[in-house]
Specification:
Length: 107
């Protein structure tokens, strides 16, 4: 779907409270370990994918057809993001974000 100017309509990205806490912890760990710039780069990449093409970047794992939503999981350099996608309203809701084993911030 695109606007009249040919630009695609982006998704609005929001975050559940649990995901906000997880993100704050990752940012705190990144500051302590000198990993802030790398984490910022990874988070920017994730945000770009979620805003522009959440379905193409991730794998769906559960559908809630009655709600018009599906749950998806996406990875970027061992950062794992689970999120819901509402394609009709163009909304992405981040449910969790965590560092997987092998990531510098894995705890």
């Amino acid at each position: 779907m695109s606007l009249g100017n040919g630009k695609p309509i982006q998704y609005r990205v929001d975050m559940e409270a649990v995901a906000r806490k997880q993100l704050k912890l990752l940012v705190s760990l990144a500051k302590q370990t000198g990993y802030s710039h790398e984490l910022a780069r990874q988070l920017t990449g994730i945000y770009h994918e979620l805003k522009n093409d959440p379905n193409g970047w991730s794998e769906p794992y559960k559908s809630y057809e009655h709600l018009g939503m599906k749950l998806c999981i996406g990875f970027l350099e061992r950062l794992c993001v689970t999120f819901g996608v509402d394609d009709v309203h163009r909304i992405v809701i981040i449910k969790s974000i965590r560092a997987n084993k092998g990531h510098a911030l894995f705890r």
